[in-house]
Write a structure and sequence with these properties.
Chains B, C: This is Condensin subunit ScpB. Chains B, C: It holds the Pfam family SMC_ScpB. Chains B, C: Keywords: Cell cycle, Cell division, Chromosome partition, Cytoplasm. Chains B, C: It comes from Rhodovulum bhavnagarense. The complex is a heterotrimer, with one copy of chain A and two copies of chain B. Chain A is mostly helical. In chain A, 53% of the residues lie in helices and 6% in strands. Among the domains of chain A are: 104 residues, no CATH class; 71 residues, Structural maintenance of chromosome 1. Chain E (Arc Repressor Mutant, subunit A, Orthogonal Bundle). In chain A, strands 2-4-3 form a three-stranded antiparallel beta sheet, with helices on one face. In chain A, strand 3 and strand 4 form a beta hairpin. In chain A, helix 3 packs across helix 4. Chain B is elongated. Chain B has a three-stranded antiparallel beta sheet with strand order 1-3-2. Classes of the chains: A mainly alpha, B alpha+beta. Chains in contact: A-B, A-C, B-C.
């Protein structure tokens, strides 16, 4: 945004005023919010921030908002909130004070706005001075060769605050996303199958069909039958691996047979 | 019995002479890239040593040298003299570029600490984007201070020793221009006329700014 | 010496005085991660400098100090004086990241203290291995709190001063709540449909500190 343009706005040059307003619109993304834009307008008055005309600044801001509306430019809500507040401030400043109405006067509100602008500018200046300081790793440097003299190695565990908070966030959000509670009713675990088969293995002297081994109550319901079959099949493989069982399948999809291995 | 009784109560041995203590502090600080606290220096040095006094001697010795003894909060470190930075291209570390929002937020925290998120937003007149505080925390330039004893008990932010170290500050009181800013009242928390101070601290921004949540 | 004309042939500018050159060598050797060769020193210093001469001056200056200038092959470096090696034990600490189980357990204790083992397991949804609590106790980041007045009178865990110190907190209450974590972008998820964000945050905060309400 060209500051000179604003001097000309102050001089009530309509062409420059329009240009200035358009420049504002073009650059609206370059502002960090409405206060930042007001600060730019205030600087345009080229006076001490404590002596700016808040009224003139409010009028410029409102004119800009009107322009933006006319050009159908989408403005963030906080710009519109500020516009509404400035319109209110303007009316307070222009109308004679109503003794029946309490609340702060227009002058008080204007003074506070001027304070906010001065404070924002002061913080801008402070951040510039801060960044202009000599900085570690750019202007001054730390010891490059830290020494390890002794061979005593002590393990120290570390974690940052960020790790801690992220861990907590992870745990708390996991609950939000817990997909469903598993229905334990129809789950037959391999551990259970293994235990059951170990107890019964002595009776399987000759080849028997694995499907015949399913426990009572797990043969009819398809969900339960599938779970029990899978568990018993996995358990059989485990027992084969341990060398206590033989297993065979004549053909693809043919019944699976098992028998106790004889040594 | 030593002629001068050492101030420590239960030291069995005489403390080493101050020149020796100075050498010890010098060696410890040279070996560490990070600032070392006075308390830790004392803990590592033999009984009866006075690290603070040794540091004062050492600082004088390094005045005007290529490396300087600097204070960082409660800790001390050797750092190269800033006027020789031009020799160090090899050691220069690329600092992550901070956004304008992050730099301003950092300055506001430094000058106004302890400060709440709502107060930062009030000063900047715009809501703080998600990553900004996060980035400063990750750099370990800011940390959480005490919660504010106002409704909602918001967390506050303060700057760290890492911040002081990075910007070569002895303490947060040495921030440039701090006195002038304070004298001009620009660091006062001044609520909008007609609003309660509590409302401000709590995060209700009056009519002016959108609430974050 | 400054009075002598510099021996270099093609220097447009006069070389810096030897005292300055000494400062430069001092700063470069201090900041460098490895010993530096004379040729490299000369290359890094302004035209007309004589690193070898500056090194000789510097070596004399550090004679008898806590650190010494030593020659390592063709290169030069600062090293701790051998008689002070005993001070360096702390520099060899091996730093390891805390395991995920440990950091999660620690986070739960910090946010929910005082908290029992069973409660930690319930929140994490997995059983706690013995080593995890032991490790946190050993680090002195947690300690035993009061026994819970429920059947079995289980012990509870709370965080320690050492924990606060390590994480740069003034009190465990200053840890940000869920709502604040979310606002700062640390918690990316939306709440599950049907749960109120506020319930979650307040629930967690409410349980957290008994004396708060």
């Amino acid at each position: 945004m060209d500051e000179d343009a604003f001097d000309e706005v102050a001089a009530h040059d309509p062409v420059s005023a329009r240009r200035a307003a358009e420049a504002l619109i073009v650059d609206v993304d370059g502002y960090e919010g409405p206060l930042d834009m007001l600060l730019t307008l205030a600087r345009g008055q080229k006076v001490d921030l404590r002596r700016i005309s808040v009224l003139q600044m409010a009028e410029q801001y409102l004119a800009f908002i009107e322009q933006a509306k006319a050009l159908r430019i989408e403005l963030a809500a906080d710009y519109l909130v500020m516009a509404a507040w400035l319109a209110f401030l303007k009316s307070r400043l222009l109308l004679p004070p109503d003794p029946a109405q309490d609340g702060p006067s227009g002058e008080e509100l204007a003074a506070h706005l001027a304070f906010q602008l001065e404070r924002l500018e002061a913080m801008r200046a402070a951040s510039a001075r801060l960044m202009a300081r000599d900085q570690r790793g750019r202007d001054f440097f730390v010891r490059g060769l830290t020494e390890d003299v002794t061979r005593i190695r002590k393990v120290s565990y570390t974690a940052t605050l960020l790790d801690l908070m992220q861990a907590y966030a992870r745990i708390r959000t996991r609950d939000d996303f817990r997909p469903y509670i598993m229905d334990r009713e129809s789950v037959y675990t391999m551990e259970d199958a293994l235990e059951r088969m170990r107890a019964m293995i002595g009776y399987a002297g000759d080849w028997v069909e694995l499907s015949g081994w399913l426990p009572e109550g797990w043969q009819l319901d398809p969900v339960r039958r599938r779970a029990a079959t899978a568990a018993h099949f996995a358990a059989s493989l485990e027992l084969v691996k341990q060398g206590v069982l033989d297993i065979r399948q004549g053909d693809m999809f043919a019944p699976i047979h098992i028998r106790k291995r004889t040594r | 019995m030593p002629a001068d009784p050492p101030p420590q109560e239960d030291s069995l041995f005489e403390a080493p002479p101050i020149g020796e203590q100075e050498r010890m502090v010098e060696a410890i600080l040279f070996a560490s890239a990070e600032p070392v606290r006075v308390a830790e220096l004392n803990a590592r040095m033999p009984h009866g040593c006075d690290a603070a006094e040794a540091l004062a001697h050492l600082a004088r010795r390094y005045e005007g040298r290529g490396v300087r003894l600097v204070r960082v909060g409660e800790a001390w470190a050797f750092r190269t003299a800033p006027d020789l930075g031009f020799l160090m291209q090899k050691e220069t570390v690329e600092v992550r570029k901070l956004s304008r929002a992050a730099i301003e937020t950092l300055a506001i925290i430094a000058y106004h600490q302890p400060v709440t998120r709502a107060e930062i937003e009030e000063i900047r007149g715009v809501s703080l984007s998600r990553g900004t505080i996060d980035q400063l925390l990750e750099l370990e330039w800011i940390r959480f201070g005490r919660r504010r004893m106002t409704p909602g008990r918001p967390v506050t932010y303060v700057v760290t020793e890492g911040f002081l170290d990075h910007f070569g500050l002895e303490s947060a009181r040495d921030l440039p221009g701090l006195k002038e800013l304070r004298a001009s009242g620009l660091l006062d928390s001044r609520p909008m006329p007609g609003t309660e101070e509590d409302d401000l601290a709590e995060g209700a921004q009056g009519d002016m700014f959108e609430d974050e949540s």
